[in-house]
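Hey, can you fold this one?
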Amino acid sequence: MKTHFLFASFCLSAITMQAQTETKKDTLTSNTLDEVLVQAVRATNKTPIAFSNLSKEELAKRNLGQDIPVLMNFMPSVVTTTDAGNGVGYTGIRVRGSDGTRVNVTINGIAYNDPESHGSFWVNMPDFVSSVENLQLQRGVGTSTNGSGAFGASLNLLTDKYSYDANGEIANSIGSFNTRKHTVKFSTGLVNNTFELTGRLSNLYSDGYIDRASSKLNSYFLQGTFINEGTLLKALVFGGKEKTYQAWNGLEQKDIEKYGRRFNTSGMYYDNEGKMQFYDNETDNYQQDHYQLHWNEKWNSNWNTNLAVHYTKGFGYYENYKTDEDLADYNLEPIAVNGETKETSDLIRRKYLDNEFYGVTFSAQYNKNNLEVLFGGAANKYTGDHYGDVLWVRSQPFTKFKQEYYRDNSTKTDKNTFAKATYTLHNNLILFGDLQWRNVTYKANGAETGLVNDTFNFFNPKAGITYKINNNSSTYFSYARANREPNRTDYENGNPKPEKLNDFELGWRYNSNKLAVNMNGYYMLYKDQLVLTGALNDVGAAVRENSGNSYRLGIEIDGTWQFAPKWMMSPNITISSNKNINYKTERNGSLVHLGNTNISFTPNVIVGNALTYSPLKQLNVSWLTKFVGEQYMGNTNSNASKLDSYVTNDINIVYEMQLKKWFKSISFNVLANNIFNVKYISNGYYYTYDDNWTNPNSIQTIEGAGYYPQAQFNILGGFSLKF
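Sure. Predicted structure:
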């Protein structure tokens, strides 16, 4: 990290030198070749799927330290949550009810999801949005070609495009819960109209809304660009280092009533005098560094190609104080204390993950007249070492040691090839086809997973049609097939099956000067969907199970309407029905058939809106509203697993003033979240266990639930200087 910081500081000196050198802008637009980086995963108005875009300018309005999922909160069918309660640290996103492990994420076309857990851990890339040019969220199977298959959505991000002119930015923000963010960016501009170097350093800190849910986050981004006529070379290195106090335990209702909604049980224990204490290093620590090299070539007016190689290195650990643990589980012998043999004890453990991910992606595009063909593929490999140490045992209070108690490793290879074609008939009928073959091999030898050696071959076809009604509107229909392998946690909980999805999408788009409307209906039919049970394992990871047959059926409507010269509104609504078909479960010692039940964590109604008033060209005031309907945290329709509906309102004020000397502009941002101080909960967990202690002759199923309270009224404010 220190090397990256020194290198970036050196590069800053180039801004002054470059500012004195005028560059002659070539005839290429500044994003033509940049967009090739994501052409294999991006959708356009010709593509028969539902998608939404966010530009750099739109993201910047609320970029005051909160993670990318929180900045996407007002997009259609999106629900977000955060462990710390205020959008900094560990955050999550669900789209159409599918959690983040089912949202395929790519950065410049390179897969970002952890290959083993399928999760996207934004805490490892704090303030990454400051280096994002734009992002696209595709709902449903989408056009994803690399990484784990999309079962809820695809999210692809394009990093900063190159700039002709030297520039820089200093941004700072502060807010509630001691939240602060400091960012420095620079670009040399195109030196000799050929080479540009750009970079960013960020530092974030927050105490969190939840007690002790602090986050200490650092990140960097460096990008070198070479451009010469039809050639674009980009080399990137970016990453982050995080230390967060754990807040993944949540709170049961009895704890909320006794201690309040901000209480955090992580690290809690009782000392020898029976007083409640908290372990001060109950933290998650991880560093992740990414390296990408892209070569885009425009050979002629018909052909262009993209080749990329990538490497990601991650290392970290989390540390826990565990109470009354079975010593045998840690390969420790019983301990004699005052003549008494103890087989359990409090202890401190540390679990490590040392992993790497590398591979190559490629694509070629042919475009002539009414035909566009895109084909390519990828080959990636992941290796991960999992191991743990016992650092301290309470029964031996004066002994500190570091004893390894488990070690296992895993490898995963992921290869795919694809071909896509778009053909326009008579200028108003567009045919779309997409074929993908994917081969996945996963091996693991852990005590938790058992011996795993699985190979999957998936064929994923897509087809659709778009009809252009007139210059303002079009309609489309598509079908997509997707297959997806289980993740590591699934193997820890049994013998999971791969899941299958048939996705049908029917939509209509309208676009005029003052009004844009998108309507989309979807029917997602699953076989062996791995649904969330509501339960968590001992490290806060969600437990899933195959549910047999299930479906998600819904309609999404979103749009933008400028209904007055200075007024604009951007509403969206999703209404859906999401069911497990003929769901069965164990209850009170016997198998119970529950019929059709609601799929966990899937509200039937999601509504968002942004009402914006622009009294001046440089001033925008937005009122942001989000409604999320009630949802179940389990799949049994139990009232004990129900999360209540909630509605939040935010105010976002942005003022930018152009300057003539020293700086190009100065801008001020204010984001007041949850202005009506609503006590709401967006996430939780649900569990059951069998009890036969009360009556040894019968088994009674006991239910329980926990919650992740979100912050009440809080505020963030910041300013940025551009030069």
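The chain has five helices and 41 strands. Let me know if you want another pass with a different chain boundary.
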